[in-house]
């Protein structure tokens, strides 16, 4: 590792979205060199892996939606936007990977833009999962009303509103994120104005409320009503659709809830409530691990679609069958894609009540 890289580890190796953890602010007796070395050796490899898997998986989802689904329903629109949100995560990772290895060399404008893109992807992703839950609620619990409400046009309007809210919620990144030299090391992180603790509290509450509490309340209501309805009217196709969205929801909370909890605990550390050195080290490790879990989430939605969505499997087989390069690769690997001919029109036949996610 270069001398500048060594200095960077000594100065600050917080993760790219660590918006208030500053290793330099820790008391001198509390050494965090092991935490810094762990971040520099572990995170770049992880970022690269997530970038490759997330880019391929979500690109396939987008291609399938445009080529075969043609965005004919509200669900299709939400799934497309969810894939775009996931792509926002992975497209920022090469910048952060280089930052962890060396230092920030892209200047303040890109520091603001890349950080902003990450947070926009975070908010929009959870909002679209919320909308998918509401979409399932309307389709199953309010079936009559949903015949008029659940259109691709209304889905487009709702999606535009979500993107607007996500953009506005991420404005603090544009306002406070800066690239500056700190102890001979160029970093990229939030630098608040004089009223430091107030902004830290605002940011913590914003992340926890918009990223966890609000979606938890909305999804709990939607799925409690869905379960109540299905108990009185059992339908296998409805159950498959619900299992799909349940899987998306459960995976999201499994991968992002620990991250939100650690963010809140870090705020308590910044206020002095948590002052123990070992506890501070443990929080640093926990932040890196839970953030990594959150990043992996952007790779999992395509996996859920493939293993739980029968139509998505068919579309993917069609895509690989008709695209020469993947077909040659599969033949070279000794794989054989079986595809049963089915009319394209049958794929678009959907009822209000049992429409599958894909």
Which short descriptors sum up this protein?
two-stranded antiparallel ribbon, Rhopdopsin 7-helix transmembrane proteins, 2 strands, mainly alpha, disordered N terminus, globular, 75% helix, 358 residues, single chain
Brief characterization of the structure:
This protein has 358 residues and is mainly α. Helix content is 75%, strand content 3%. The chain has helices at 3-11, 33-69, 74-101, 107-140, 143-149, 152-169, 171-176, 196-232, 236-270, 277-308, 310-322, 324-332, 344-347, and strands at 177-181, 186-190.
Could you describe the 3D structure shown?
This protein is mostly helical and 358 residues long. The protein has one domain: Rhodopsin 7-helix transmembrane proteins (Rhopdopsin 7-helix transmembrane proteins, Up-down Bundle). The protein has 13 helices and 2 strands. The protein has helices spanning 3-11, 33-69, 74-101, 107-140, 143-149, 152-169, 171-176, 196-232, 236-270, 277-308, 310-322, 324-332, 344-347, and strands at 177-181, 186-190. The protein has a two-stranded antiparallel sheet with strand order 1-2. Helix 3 runs parallel beside helix 6 (152-169), helix 4 (107-140) runs antiparallel to helix 9 and helix 9 (236-270) packs antiparallel against helix 10 (277-308). It is globular. The chain starts with a helix and ends in an 11-residue tail after the last helix. Residues 1-27 and 332-358 have low confidence and may be disordered. Residues 57-305 form the G-protein coupled receptors family 1 profile domain. GO terms for molecular function: C-C chemokine binding; C-C chemokine receptor activity. This is G-protein coupled receptors family 1 profile domain-containing protein. One of its GO terms (cellular component) is external side of plasma membrane.
